[in-house]
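We modelled the chain as a single entity of 851 amino acids. Its sequence is:
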Amino acid sequence: MRRSTTTRSAPRVRGWTLGSVLLLLAPSILALLTTTATAAQSAFYVDQTVPSCSDSNPGTADAPFCTIAKGVGVLQPGSTLDIGNGTYAETIKPAVSGTATAPVTITRWPGRSPTIARTTTYGAYLVNRSFVVLSNLTFTGTTLDGVYVSGSDHIQVSGNVVTDAGQPRQGATAPGISLRSSTASTVSGNTSDHNSDHGILVSGTSTGNTISGNEASRNANGWQRNANGIDVIAPGNTILRNVLHDNEDSGLQFYTGGNNNLAALNVSYNNGDHGIDDLNVTGGRLISNTIYHNCTTGINVEGTSGSYTIEDNIAVDNAVYPAYNGISCTRRAGNIGVWDSAPPSTTVDHNLVWLSKAGTMYVFGSGYTTLAAMQKATGQEAAGVQADPRFAGPAGGILQLTAGSPAEDRGDSAVPGAQDHDLLGNPRVRDPSVDDSMASGPRLYDDLGAYELQPGSTPPPTAPTATLSVTPTTGTAPLQVTADASASTDPQGQTLTYAFDFGDGAVTGTQDAATATHTYTAPGSYALTVTTTDASGLTSTATRTVTVGQATPSSPTARVSVTPATGTAPLQVTADASASTDPQGQPLTYAFDYGDGTTSGNQASPTATHTYTAAGSHVLTVTVTDSSGLSSTAARTVTTTTPSAVAPTFVNSIATNFSTSTHTSGSVTVWRPGGVAAGDLVVLTLQLSGTGAAGTVSATDSGGNVYSQAATVSDGAGNRLVLLTGVATTALAVNDKVTVAFPSAATYRLVGDEFTGAARLDQAATATGTASAFSSDAAPATVGNEIAFGAVSVPSTTTAPAWATGWRSVGAYAVGSQYLSRAYQLPVAGSQTATGTAGGPWLAAVLTLRQ
């Protein structure tokens, strides 16, 4: 919780890693990871580093896609998308939800190392989705949240690494992982650090979620003290077995709105404010947490908070030593502090407190320097203890108990929220040599805090084991390699730091990241060494040899795509060779042969447009040439057909829908008997109010068909009319759904109309006005036998729009005083204008549609 704007930066205090905690995932969560679809192909693959990758591939392991966007676009319930090597500046945005028995899974391709980085928005964007698994991916440097989940349920975010989200400046911060107004979801086993806001945020109406086994550290706004490890401002969630350290504000914060949450078995140390902070919240349970060396009150309950239960915790050396950047804190003190209106309805018992120097031991309304004084004054903490807990290595964040700890066999196992296994998954164990007379509940041997002391003494720390891999190990100069020491381990589970020496005079110095890249510029044999150091200062090294040969230029690799690849003549296509690459990174030039006798010479631009005027099968070829004069070619086939003599025909309106509340998407359900025939063209007409003039509008349907924006017009008063077109390559049945995504709008109205004999958009024109007569600009029909489709939006009127002579109305969709009317003419030639009369200010658009 922010209480001042003093700027601080984080020290490098090492904490416990949590890989083993993932073993505690509930069987129902594991089932989500292993469910497979019954479709013919349920597993899809993306790897941009595979030379033969293409978004035209089937997306198999042998023929993967190149982009994540293509991969998520083909997912259906029960599908899995494995993402392979490469750095993807894309947002993971699944278009569909899964089901309880067939989730949608997006994960790392086993044995590969993808990174989602430098996206201009979110790393992953899950809005209004259900039963989606997002796991084992790395997100770094996103402009907005690394992982953004909103309005969703049964989402699993697990095993991911999220770093450097947002920017540490006012107005540009972003949390690593956010769960907003979402339910029944799990955020588990993730690492979220060095983000410009909270490591993990739970907000809005989010409830029934479990945040478990995560490590959140070194998160900071930078310009004010506000970033927490985990920030909870939503009710009824479970925060379990997390390690939170070196954050700018508190390790774990429950803020206004975060009522009735459970925090159990969390470790929170060296944070810039509290270990656990509770402000203006009620009904919370803080059970079996270990809170150490935080800047202010270790466990803090204040403001209008009340009805709290605080039991079985360990709180040591809080608010007495400088913490987080070595700055002393002068705010509220105490290992455990219950302030303001909280004491009358708060219960504290079975907690261990200790200070290694003079300070405030406890606050319960008033401050006390000893637990005994607090017990005498309040009658609380009858089973509490003031004693050194005998941590194994507190200076390095190793807060497990050692033999003889007074925290042994002293807990209340009956308190709601008590757990039968500790943070590491170890069971509760009785120590027959310990007096358990102060314990209570069905088990009289629960240890206090997050860790259960296991039989036998704690061994002295031993050195880590360094493990190093290098990719590639051979090649020609200049050779860029990636050194990866992430498989290194520490027997105590301490956090490791890494220093790389590349053997050519270049070094990295000590760093938290387990990987480093380096480019060797000269031929030779180099010993690349990593030195790993744990929190106890013990080190280990590993070495690999990198052999660099004399560089010889290689030919570039040509790639070309054509859009569209089929259609009726005349057909304008765009050839795109921008995916072509050169091994030396040299600039490329491009020459196109269109296969119909037309060519374009060498040019710097990788794209070109061309119009095929005759029917036939044409081989379009691109030749790419680098500055060494080496070249390669790639080809695609373009098929053009003769336009059909059959006149286009209006079939029917397929569905309507509206909403008078704020949305970012809307949908219609096909009601027309017989659905929509394969090959027919669908026009979607969307009327928005309370929205901006710009922003992408797109649509998909249950059959996987895609609709593109054909025309858009706005009036500057928050009203917008958008037309989209798309061919139903896959037929739609009754009750199939068409979903449109748009910028946030206060209301929307959506209508779908079906035409046969038309295949694509020709021209479009729009206009807006206030006169009683409406008239769009003119859209020409460039060939004969076309359809003209018109739409007019009247945001406020009591009179339905009327169409001019020649236009056939297909209905006026009225919602209150808002009208959306459509009409058509066919067949047409020449310029077309949507005209008629309206009872108020209007927005009009006209399309010409061709075969």
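As a brief sanity check on the tokenised model: Residues 27-34 form the longest helix (8 residues). The two ends are 62 Å apart (CA to CA).
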